[in-house]
Specification:
The protein is of the alpha/beta class and 200 residues long. It folds into 2 domains: 28-149, no CATH class; 155-173 and 182-199, no CATH class. The protein has helices at residues 5-16, 21-26, 96-105, 117-120, 126-142, 155-173, 181-192; strands at residues 39-45, 55-62, 70-74, 82-87, 90-95, 112-116, 145-149, 196-199.
């Protein structure tokens, strides 16, 4: 049976109308429940070019025996400013700051395994957030590396990071001299910064 002009109009109209709430919710990512109290989620950041959409996959793993991963800590930014990323092909809204950090960390050809609180914790569940916060100390200590995202680089931030690196390197060159217990404790804390990577 041939389609009438009315049928064509209905088809065009349905394709241009906004999605209903049920359709929108069906296309949004929902977190998979945890298996036990020692479980966490890790995200597998898919490779891509800098300006490509962010695509990732999420897996539930045991904190007792996780695969090698890196942790990211970042400035969340104002809540209203959110952008879309895609988890298992479904939309997930996160802060623009999180998206910017992911763009800088994403590999062009390789998958990166990360832990990021805004994605790996179901932010809509108060119960889960409360439980996962208790595990965050172990999450960061078990990470191979911790990245800190403070925002896009500026001339001032570049100066601070260069100064910090030079400061630590000079201190290591003269570390042979005798130090008080307090000095040693202070320098141990400063040297820990070398295991933290600031992303700009």
């Amino acid at each position: 049976m041939a389609l009438t002009s009315k049928d064509h109009f209905r088809g065009w109209l349905s394709s241009h109308l906004p999605l209903k709430d049920t359709q929108l919710s069906a296309s949004r990512y929902e977190h998979t429940p945890f298996d036990d109290e020692s479980s966490i989620r890790l995200l597998y950041l898919q490779p891509g070019r800098f300006d490509d959409d962010i695509h990732l996959k999420v897996k539930v793993v045991s904190l007792d025996d996780p695969p090698p991963y890196r942790a990211l800590s970042y400035v969340w930014g104002p809540p209203p400013h959110e952008s879309s990323i895609f988890c298992h092909g479904k939309e997930l809204l996160v802060s623009e700051s999180c998206v910017a950090a992911l763009r800088h960390l994403r590999g062009k050809y390789t998958v990166k395994i990360l832990w990021i609180d805004a994605i790996c914790i179901d932010q809509s569940s108060l119960e889960e957030r409360g439980h996962q916060v208790k595990l965050m100390g172990d999450v960061y200590s078990n990470a191979q590396r911790t990245w800190i995202w403070l925002g896009e680089s500026t001339s001032e931030s570049d100066f601070v990071m260069d100064f910090l690196n030079n400061f630590i390197n000079v201190k290591e060159q003269i570390s042979g001299r005798s130090q008080s217990h307090q000095e040693k404790a202070l320098w141990q804390e400063i040297k820990k910064l070398k295991s933290i990577y600031f992303v700009f």
